[in-house]
Specification:
heterotrimer; A alpha/beta (about 170); B alpha+beta (about 425); C alpha/beta (about 170); A: about 170 residues; alpha/beta; 5-stranded mixed beta sheet; about 20% helix; elongated; C: about 170 residues; 4-stranded parallel beta sheet; 4 strands; about 10% strand; globular
Chain lengths: ~170, ~425, ~170
């Protein structure tokens, strides 16, 4: 299905769907996430049975602060869909989709590791990319980039996130 | 001396029976298992992959892959750099297929900008990506062969790869991690003599691929170690998010170059090899066949490069301001342009300064762009907040999802097969950990 | 005192170095030189390829840029059997203890070549995840810059290391 047609078809079932840059995005609340994904998977004209990736973006100061993004693809029809779930700052919990898509296992672990978003019902929510005793969630916007400054011939260049000049 | 069949039967028998020991104190009979650690520094794990294996004799009962030993923070770094500098970061994620990382990122940025690269740039992108695919498969066959004991394949694979890296060096200036594909096109055109160099490569390569097939296809050790090893059915593969040659070895003909074409792939004539046995040998056959198909695409792309044209988009707010070409010292330069900005025009100097230090400002939005890399679906999820730098870049790496299939494929088999399985998966830990 | 020269071999020593050697005595200097020559002549690297630089290291060991000209094509997987650790690639915080452990498991005499800018100084990744230079963890003898360094650059670094080993006296 072409994106425009898909947008109309999705829009019939889900009110918060929009089409931008040839991609269809659906916004859902976290309580209805599993139902929505099941419906998207089981409806024969949609059949979104392949989960490409689970990730998140952080918008501090806005509400919702975190958006968890699921990229779905249909094997039968070769079209894509994005499902986004908004999470507040003080309660970053979202149900895990590993019962539906086993591939979400490591993707959700990575999102927990880098953002601190807790996936309820995940079989083994541990750090995956960072050492087990690491503190903090680096990809949040309020965490620093880290790194050291460079000193060379009397000039000092601070680490990347402290530089004023580009 | 036992025949191969008898040995095979004895092995089958042993696999079913766990070794039993009687506890000397309590007298109960229990199974003895051993937990060993493979990696992260290991000659056969294709990079810094760590496998925790629970073994019963030689049979693997449980396997847990542990990754993260190469986590580089690429995604966080891109949020502090301009859009063009992001190319230099992203290209080092999956370091065996740098052009694919760059291509996915630049296609995503171009979609956010709402522009398209000029036709010649698209042809150059396809040409270099397909050469990169051949180079990546050569490293796979070289290291995979070496891990299974076929050490001479290592030397042959790297010998052919050097031919391709010569082409890369002539075109982009670098052998690896090129930063050649930029948002808006590519940074340089082919050098004089470039097409002849690629044509000469196209003449020599098919015979070399025949050599690989003659060396490995019917080699009894290669066949014995790969046939029937690491089976992964189509449903398991799709549930685990596996893409690329592993999925195609299970009979699922998904190739993003055909299903969701980008960069003009729908105009090229090539096949997608698919097998049904779903074992390591099928993946080997598919990768060798993919090398041949890539040669076909390179030939077609070369024919389209006869007409000159721009390689970077002309929009002054987007395109790189200078038309570089690789000089005799191997550094990209443009003498006339330097004279223009330094001596002739102040506006050009200011514009050049702004474009190089700040770069393009990309309108707000988010885009997910997927390309077919040698390992599967390589996706970039790029979010922009109308600034000179990305807001979020997430790399959906194929090896990250493919490695989740390792426990399914390894458990129940011999530990030596674990090496063959990981070799057939072709993971690149740079992409897994980013 | 006559200075020893091998036939057709440029010794390249300064008069001060000759003076030093004379003080040590002729017997020990010959043994010293012989041992240093033997050590550099077939130095076995340990496999510590991490990222992109590892591929260039493999290319250096392969057919075109042949490390086996200096007896180094044998990359030993076991650190006990290796003399040289070429840290090829970016060292993440999770990998740093492993690096130190492998270095500790190597037997004296051992040398370290830091290949690439990521191993030498953190490279382009000045961030939370990468150790900003492996010389914060292990003592480094030779730094080879590049991203990644061409195999010829790595060979130049290794030859400099050979020179260092050959001219460093170890027997007192």
């Amino acid at each position: 299905m072409k994106p425009a047609e898909l947008a109309i078809r999705i829009g019939d079932h889900f009110p918060d769907a929009f089409l931008a840059r040839e991609e269809v995005t659906v916004l859902v609340g976290r309580d209805e996430l599993i139902d929505v994904l099941l419906r998207l998977r089981d409806q024969p004209d949609l059949s979104f049975g392949f989960l490409s990736s689970v990730t998140a973006t952080d918008h501090p100061g806005k509400d919702p602060r975190f958006w968890v993004v699921y990229e779905l693809r249909s094997v039968a029809h070769a079209h894509r869909l994005r499902v986004k779930v908004g999470l507040p700052d003080d309660d970053p919990h979202v149900p895990s989709v590993t019962p539906l898509f086993p591939t979400a296992d490591w993707h959700e672990r990575e999102t927990w590791d880098l953002f601190g978003i807790v996936f309820d019902g995940h079989p083994d929510l541990d750090r995956i990319l960072l050492p087990d005793d690491w503190e903090g969630h680096p990809l949040r916007k309020d965490e620093e980039l880290g790194g050291v400054g460079t000193q060379y011939h009397g000039a000092f260049i601070p680490p990347v996130d402290e530089r004023t000049m580009p | 001396m036992a025949t191969g069949q008898e040995m095979g039967a004895a092995r089958d028998e042993l696999q079913g029976v766990p070794r039993q020991i009687r506890d000397r104190v309590t007298g109960e009979v229990r199974r003895e298992t051993m937990i060993i650690n493979m990696g992260p520094q290991h000659p056969s794990t294709h990079g810094v992959l760590r496998l925790l294996l629970e073994l019963d004799g030689e049979t693997v009962i449980r396997c847990k892959p542990i990754v993260g030993y190469l986590h580089t923070g690429i995604e966080k770094n891109t949020e502090y750099r301009t859009w063009v500098q992001g190319v230099a970061y992203v290209t080092r994620a999956d370091y065996l297929s740098p052009f694919f990382n760059e291509l996915a990122y630049c296609l995503a940025v171009e979609r956010l900008l709402g522009i398209e690269a000029p036709p010649r740039a698209q042809v150059l992108r396809v040409l270099l990506c397909e050469l990169n695919r051949i180079a990546s498969h050569l490293v796979w066959v070289a290291t995979g062969g070496m891990e299974l004991g076929a050490v001479s394949v290592m030397l042959y694979g790297f010998r052919e790869r050097e031919l391709i890296l010569d082409i890369f060096e002539a075109v982009t200036g670098l052998r690896m991690n090129h930063s050649y594909i930029r948002p808006g096109g590519v940074i340089m055109d082919l050098p004089p003599g470039g097409t002849q160099m690629i044509a000469k490569f196209l003449d020599t390569m098919p015979a070399r691929i025949d050599d690989y097939e003659r060396l490995l296809n019917k080699n009894p050790i290669w066949v014995e170690r790969n046939v029937g090893v690491g089976k992964l059915s189509a449903e398991d593969a799709l549930a685990l998010g596996v893409t690329g040659p592993i999925l195609r070895s299970a009979g699922v003909p998904i190739d993003l170059r055909k299903d969701e074409p980008y960069s003009g792939y729908e105009t090229y004539d090539f096949d997608v090899p698919v097998r049904t046995e779903a074992d390591a040998y099928a993946r080997y056959v598919i990768r060798i066949a993919e090398m041949r198909e890539s040669l076909k695409i390179v030939e077609q792309a070369l024919e389209r490069l006869t007409e000159p044209g721009p390689v970077m988009v002309e929009d002054p707010k987007v395109g790189w301001p200078v038309k570089l070409s690789v000089g005799p010292d191997g550094i990209g330069n443009d003498e006339g342009y330097l004279r223009h900005i330094m001596e002739e025009s102040m506006e050009a100097l200011i514009h050049h300064f702004k474009m190089v230090t700040q770069g393009v400002r990309v309108p707000e939005g988010e885009v997910y762009q997927a390309v077919e890399s040698p390992r599967g679906e390589l996706g970039m999820y790029v979010v922009s907040a109308n600034e000179h730098r990305p807001y979020r870049v997430h790399i959906r790496d194929p090896s990250f999802a493919n490695l989740q299939a390792v426990p399914t494929m390894v458990e129940g088999g011999l530990i030596a097969d674990a090496v063959a399985v990981i070799a057939s998966l072709d993971p690149v830990l740079g992409g897994v950990d980013r | 005192m006559p200075v020893e020269r091998f036939e057709g071999h440029f010794t390249g020593r300064t008069p001060e170095e000759v003076e030093d050697e004379v003080k040590k005595g002729v017997m020990l200097t010959t043994l010293d030189r012989a041992v240093s020559w033997a050590r550099k002549q077939s130095m076995w690297p340990a496999t510590f390829g991490l990222a992109c630089c590892a591929i260039e290291m493999m290319s250096a060991g392969a057919g075109r840029y042949d490390l086996s000209r200096w007896g180094m094509e044998l990359f030993r997987a076991s650190p006990r059997q290796a003399d040289l650790m070429i840290v090829a690639g970016r060292v993440s915080q999770k990998m740093a203890p492993v690096l130190r452990r492998v270095y500790d498991q190597m037997v004296e005499p051992k040398w370290v070549v830091s290949m690439g800018v990521c191993a030498s100084a953190g490279g382009m990744f000045t961030n939370y995840a990468i150790v900003q230079g492996v010389d914060t963890i292990v003592p480094v003898d030779i730094y080879v810059p590049g991203c990644p360094p061409k195999p010829e650059m790595l060979m130049f670094g290794i030859l400099k290391l050979h020179e260092k080993v050959r001219t460093t006296g170890t027997i007192r």
